[in-house]
Amino acid sequence: MGGVAAGNEPCRRGEIHGPEAGNFGIPKKAGPAAVGIAGVAARQRGLVTRRQLVAGGLSDATIHDWVRRGHLHRVHRGVLAVGHRRSDMETAWLAAALAAGAGAAISRRSSGELQHILAVDELQWHRSPIHLTRPGRSARRDGLIIHSGPLARIDVVEVAGIPATTAARTLFDIAPDRTPRELRRAFEEAEYLEILDRARLEVLCAGGRGHRNVAALRALLGEPALSLRDVRSRLEALVMAICREHRLPLPVANAPVRGYEVDLLWVRKRFIVEADGGRHRGRQRDRDNERDAELARAGYLTRRYSAAALRRPRAVAGEIREILAERSGGAVERSGGAVEEIRRRR
Fold first, then answer.
1. Which CATH superfamily is domain 229-345 in?
2. Whole-prediction pTM value?
3. Secondary-structure class of domain 3-86 per CATH
């Protein structure tokens, strides 16, 4: 982000360190203004705009003094972190959207990464510019690439409190810069996560004459949507991959339990993992809740993971390890002979 923190210490884009959010370190002498500013910051991942500070009752001189004293840290021009500098991708994306102004949304590659339809390098993300789209002029500054162009309301969605272009608009925007293979993978990921509006993408393609790779998008739209079986199998495979990578005991897939077939089962631990995709809602959710309650009475713990949750494999692996340890009363066994022993018990 190329900003300047207190003491003239430069801060890179996305770097926000210090006290935890909520404990912003705003001077008590600021009075009622402090409460209002802290409230805004709490809703915006510890970020505020200069306009919000002025609207909250701070003068330019006070803002400058707070920056000097370390109560505020410049992240982008017109965007500051309040009392801390936290480092994570979501905060960087929100800061970028605030810096780009009203009507702006994270777009293109950055939106694809935010919505998990494009892979992101969690170690190198801070080195890449953030893409945004807004009506008006395009610009490049502070690690931001701001594209100009019309942006209909139907093409904007809020993801974790961050305005971003929808999956359909994102696929349309990134198509010229992707190979057909890369585009297919992103398309399938959007379908897999059940965030793709096929009808809207068709409309965008219809108005995209001369847009490179529109033909590839139309070909993908001509294929049938992923079936529930396809989504379920991919989610199950991902859980199994997580267990192998983190050396957790492997579960049995599609195991029968009290008249039900569960996705993944650790037999001795009576622990079930269900990979839900995006279909765990409405009547299906009610049926699943009834089944989970019945299995709980029989001593089985069920944990459901959405496709989005499984995009954070370390967190999932850590939770599974903790649950297995809790249900065994000790350390978790490593994978190896565990699966064979479980299968012998079936």
1. VSR Endonuclease (3.40.960.10)
2. 0.64
3. alpha beta
